[in-house]
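A quick aside before the break. I want you to see a complete sequence-to-structure record at least once, exactly as it would be stored in a machine-readable document. Don't worry about memorizing anything.
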Amino acid sequence: MIFMCTSIVYENKENNFFLARTMDFSFPLGGSPIFIPKDYTFYVDNDSKNFDVQYSFVGSGRHIEDYLFADGVNEEGLGVASLYFSDDANYTALDDEAEHFLAPHDVVAWLLSSFKTVAEVKKGIASQTIKAEECSVIGNVLPLHWIVSDQKGETIVIEPTKAGLIIYDNPVKVMTNSPDFSWHLTNLNQYNQLSNTTLKESSYHHFLAKGNGAGSGALGLPGDYTSISRFIRTAFISEHIEKVGGFEESINVITRLLSSVFIPKGIKKKENGKDDYTQFISYMALNDCSYVINYYETNQLFKVDLKKMSRTQHEIKEFKCSKELQIELLQ
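That is the input. The structure line, written in tokens, reads:
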């Protein structure tokens, strides 16, 4: 199975940070924004894995035996997103003797529940074991890796590999899917000719080759939907896109940025004929401690104010979002 997602960290003019991602999958995941209060206990399959929520959080999730999350932000401004890492994810075997461990699909909730900063995550995850445990929603072991960012913009990538759990600092603030993150960084060296300027004229003996006008500096920018190309395209656009101030303005710019990797239905077909498409885009405002989501079917954006929820809400709350298209009639 090959599924696609793209994630970025955007810094606005006010030095506020946003972790955002596309969720690309081939069947409806049925996720919705869910608020988890402090002191809730996650009861997962093995008692040794149960953990308490130290920091309330909100993210895109679904309730099965317990709550599973694809991403989210906590009350301290730590943001986490899980993306597919097919063919490369390598977990500890289920029969390993480690008493305390996590399943891949529990990592997002555990990180958001337990840590305030990326520095804390680095220390905490280093001693954690992630076992190859099946996710009941999908029916197999989810091959995942994770991007984590905080209110200072510190960003890391966590990847389970044959060599163990690898933690990378993420200087480009982008993550997609396989190959591994270090491969993507090396590959980025092949595109250092890209720019947001116009190419200059070049002489070839007695022939003067003129540039193709505005945008010609981006000639060679990959345009397909593979993980490799999406990484390059997103890194380039993220580097040059305008820096704006304000919450709503930042959400708008991030939407335009991720539109370059948004996958409509029909563009990417699986072997069984099903569409792999962008089911939603989620935005985690790390300094504002809020969560925004936009679904494929609608132009509406839905926001959860985590600071307010943490003060007033002491029970789990799942939000239902309308997926109707909103069109204003002018008269």
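Two observations worth writing down. The radius of gyration is 21 Å. The chain has six helices and 19 strands. We'll return to this after the break.
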